[in-house]
Design goal:
The complex is a heterodimer. Chain A is mainly α. In chain A, about 75% of the residues lie in helices and about 0% in strands. Chain A has helices at about 5-25, 30-45, 55-75, 80-90, 95-105, 110-120, 120-135, 140-145, 150-175. In chain A, helix 6 (about 110-120) packs across helix 9, helix 7 crosses helix 9 and helix 8 crosses helix 9 (about 150-175). Helix content of chain B is about 40%, strand content about 10%. The chains are: A mainly alpha, B alpha/beta.
């Protein structure tokens, strides 16, 4: 068993991935709170977690649970319905200036991507988030989804296909 | 460090990574403050600049536990603190404010004696006994390894005194740089011979 790294190393190495997962699962508005709760919970549990093999997968699991807790606590749904999502794309400029400008240049706004993710069936959405967004191997995605590596791979592939379709649909709706 | 995932990130998802760097700086600062407020930081550290290069300062709730020179490799020092003290280590400068200030005063020749709570848990047995005697060598003075050994319970353990100095977890604050060879030459120093010369020169001025 390799020794536990200083916790600061976990924040520096995996903070970005955890933030993406929080944004994808909790929404842009609640992502910061969920990120904080995730790392505080991880720090609390750290001394008794010496047997963890993959720190990134461990943190993503905590982030997933915190995102679910957050939905329960705020009573806010993780998934906006279609209309909200379309409205949101027009209103984000006020909340996050530069980030949104860059996102627009990148093709889609973060809100659009999140809204498109939210339209996916839960298993597909989570598979896309854990594998494509967080970079976890399918072997680490499977336990999070409660299925097999092959099923996780299939869910991620189907998820990406639907995601592309939703994003194309969005663009057509706006043009 | 995020490049391995960023490179593989499908372009459809790229928008979710925008503004990461700023957001992470802000989130990290909030998190460290919250962790400190909840007493979840077992080892706090910061890095300061000094005339002998960048210095890592690490402290527990008991006091300063480690001062490390750059040549020791700050990353490996932190890893060893994780293994030997606790892995709950965070960059949390506030706890080291007093130590940073006293070292700054020392290098500015405005301080001759350190007045800091020290945590000696990284030095045990004879090593710790040797360290306890080092502050007896006053500012601007030196003593030979043999003279320090003579102060201990094992007056002939000259070589062990050398080892204790070479592995001092709290250099500068516990003045192992004032221990020199019997022939008057400087001898080795964990901060490098140049650093030892600089410190003895500074104290002699």
């Amino acid at each position: 068993m390799s020794p536990q790294p200083p916790f600061e190393v976990l924040v520096a190495s995996h903070g970005a991935v955890v933030l993406r997962v929080c944004r994808a699962l909790a929404g842009l508005q609640d992502a910061d709170d969920v990120w904080q709760e995730t790392f505080l919970a991880a720090l609390r549990a750290y001394p008794s977690s010496a047997d963890v093999r993959n720190w990134e997968a461990w943190l993503v699991t905590i982030a997933r649970n915190k995102a679910m807790d957050h939905h329960r606590k705020t009573g806010r749904l993780p998934i906006p319905d279609g209309d909200d999502a379309l409205e949101a794309t027009g209103t984000v400029a006020g909340s996050g200036g530069d980030a949104v400008v860059h996102a627009v240049e990148a093709g889609e706004t973060a809100e659009q991507v999140w809204a498109a993710l939210a339209k996916l069936p839960p298993k597909q959405r989570e598979a896309v988030v854990y594998h494509h967004l967080a970079g976890l191997a399918y072997a680490d995605v499977a336990p999070l989804l409660g299925n097999s590596e092959a099923a996780a791979r299939r869910a991620a592939a189907d998820g990406m296909k639907s995601l592309r379709a939703h994003l194309v649909q969005d663009r057509e709706d706006f043009s | 460090m995020e490049t391995h995932t960023a490179a593989a990130l499908p372009p459809e998802l790229a928008a979710l990574t925008t503004g990461d760097a700023d957001a992470l700086d802000r989130l990290g600062a909030q998190f460290r403050a919250a962790a400190a407020a909840d007493d979840l930081v077992d080892v706090a550290y910061r890095v300061i600049d000094s005339p002998v290069g960048s210095l890592l300062l690490a402290g527990t709730e008991r006091g300063l536990v480690r001062v490390a020179f750059a040549r020791e490799g700050h990353d490996s020092v932190l890893e060893s603190l994780a293994a030997n003290v606790s892995p709950r280590i965070l960059l949390a400068p506030a706890r080291l404010d007093d130590a940073a200030r006293e070292l700054e005063e020392y290098f500015a020749q405005r301080r001759q004696v350190f007045d800091l709570p020290l945590d000696f848990r990284l030095a045990t047995g004879f090593r710790r006994e040797v360290l306890a005697h080092l502050p007896d060598i006053g500012y601007g003075h030196t003593a030979s390894y043999a003279a320090v050994a003579a102060l201990t319970s094992s007056p002939r353990a000259v070589r062990a005194v050398g080892t204790a100095c070479a592995r001092n977890p709290l250099p500068l604050v516990v003045p192992c740089h004032r221990v020199i060879r019997s022939d008057g030459s400087w001898g080795a120093y964990l901060g490098g011979v140049d650093a030892k010369a600089l410190l003895l020169g500074l104290e002699a001025a």
